[in-house]
Amino acid sequence: MGDVLFRGGSVWTGNPEEPRAGAVAVRDGRVLAVGDHAPDAVGPGAATVDLAGGCLVPAFRDGHVHPLHAGLQLSGVPLVGATTIAELTTRVADFARAHPDLPVVVGKGYDPTLAPGGCFDAADLDAVVADRPVVLTASDGHVMWVNSRALAAARIGAATPDPPRGAIVRRPDGSPMGTLLEAARELMAPVVPPPTAADRREALRRALDEMAAAGLVWGLEAWCGPDEVEAWLGLAEAGPLPLRGELALLVRPDRWREQREFLLDARREAARRGGGQVRATTVKFFADGIIEAGTGALLDPYTDDPHSHGLPNWEAGELAEAVAAVDAEGFQAHLHAIGDAAVRAALDAVAATAARNGPRDRRPVTAHTQLVHPDDLPRFAQLGVVANFEPLWAQRNGVMTQLTEPRLGPERSAWQYPMGALLRSGSLISFGSDWPVSSVVPLEGIAVAVTRQTADGEPPEGWTPDQRLTLEQALAAYTTGTAHQAFEEPGTGTLVPGARADACLLATDPATVEPPAVAGIPVLGTWLAGREVFRA
After folding, report:
1. Topology of 104-188 in CATH?
2. What is the sign, positive or negative, of the torsion defined by CA atoms of 140, 336, 392, 504?
3. What are the backbone dihedrals phi and psi of residue 468, each rounded to the nearest 5 degrees, phi first?
4. DSSP string of 164-190?
5. How many CB atoms lie under 10 A from the CB of residue 359?
6. Distance, CA of 172 to CA of 259 (rounded, Å)
7. Per-domain residue ranges of the chain
8. Do 320 and 353 contact (CB within 8 A), yes or no?
9. Closest to 10 measured CA to CA, from 480, 445, 511
10. What letter does residue 79 receive in the DSSP assignment?
11. Are the C-beta atoms of residues 66 and 25 closer than 8 Å to each other?
12. What per-residue confidence (pLDDT) applies to 1?
């Protein structure tokens, strides 16, 4: 790879000591020089990239994302953006008519706030598709809405017990309503035909291209079983990927001991077949579900259901033992922790692991980190835990007002997404999207992290404004923060001499626009170690 010179615009380097520059020189995939002397550092045959007045920034990294699931979602009923149940059912009907040979109608991404309490009725789907099963997954990924044919095909009736760590929403007479929570979704596994290996590879390819177009060069695939691992490695063997991937290998509470060989084999195969672009050194734990569905694990009962603390997926002692076991094998723990009880259980597991296995640079991650009890805030820095946030969620939108706040009450609602508090306490934070749960575009999340506002600018002063970040802090969480999470080499996530030349060209310098406008800045190009992987 020859020399490349980026010039003709502004550069945000990500280096606090020298944050701004006018040019960047690259050689063999690494930053050679930054600033006024960069043009003199390249050879006479250097290629030039004209920034055209735009702003070059370190490329983004997504600390929690599901590209394979996002790619597969593109092939089902297009549910994203529907604003009423009638619009959802119309889309289902149109899709079913257009695909008469499909044995099951599948879709992902509907808005769970469109029905009271997030509970949808099978009858609404029966009215438009009664001849075959319909299985839809909510945008949060934790809830399903199905029709009566799907319930019958899965043999779910009034006498069917709730599975461990899941719930079948029921009518007053005990019959299943058509909404399945958490592990109850697995009852639909025999009904929905799994995608083929070729389907998975093609879905992943499309998703990675979309991520590159958003300015991303690394992502943590946050839910991997054997099929997901094979899709990534098969695609990597077919040619260079537009980004690097870390695979988080999912372990389950009821069989994590038996999964040890899967973890070791996946890590070994990724090292052998991943071409230096795919690793599998992370293990994923689901500590709980989500607050909006009443399955997030809370220290105190839900405000709207004083008999429920949610659905913790693990016994506290078992979670600590499992985290310690995978840590002893050299894996990084990545713990989905939404409710304050789940966050505390994750922190307790990390503390127990450190006591049992001794000191090492383990960088455990709490994913989403939605509700944190104030007593637990200092523990992140004390334990070296990386707090991963999906910043786009830190706004008082319809999900917050209709589903979250009624379940938490005002005091606990104000504890959510404590980005600013954790930074002030010396903790490290990283950002992600959880795509396809929410937008994969980092700039949209960055705008919310800075404003704590909806796209309509509400509330004017920002929701929980003491948790707002500066623009530089938000950019860092999506660059150096995720690079730290990923155990990347020093300098990664910045444009400084010696660092990998992972860069993203924005049409406008985000520091020159009002914070809400950051969300709409176009991405014009993305470079992975100096190799162009996207140009608008």
Report:
1. Diaminopimelate Epimerase; Chain A, domain 1 (3.10.310)
2. negative
3. -65, 150
4. TTEEEEE-TTS-EEEEEEEGGGGGGTT
5. 7
6. 40
7. 104-188, 197-488+500-526
8. yes
9. 511
10. -
11. no
12. 66
Half-sphere exposure of 305 (CA within 13 A, CB side): 17
Which amino acid is it at 375?
A: D
- Which residues lie closer than 8 Å to 435 by C-beta, 6 or more apart? 62, 65, 66, 67, 70
- Strand bridging mode 30-34 / 531-535: unpaired
- Alpha-carbon gap, residue 206 to 162, rounded angstroms: 37
Look at the block and give the residue holding tokens 């699931």.
Answer: 69
| DSSP bridge partners of 23 | 7
Q: pLDDT tens digits, residue range 292-332?
A: 999 999 999 999 999 999 999 999 899 999 999 999 999 99
Closest CA to 496 of 28, 31, 38: 31
Helix (H, G, I), strand (E, B) or coil at 287: coil
Average pLDDT over the chain, rounded to whole? 96
CA 383 – CA 352 distance, rounded (Å): 10
> Tell me, which fold does domain 197-488+500-526 have in CATH?
TIM Barrel (3.20.20)
- Encode pLDDT of 397-425 as tens digits: 999 999 999 999 999 999 999 999 999 99
pTM: 0.90
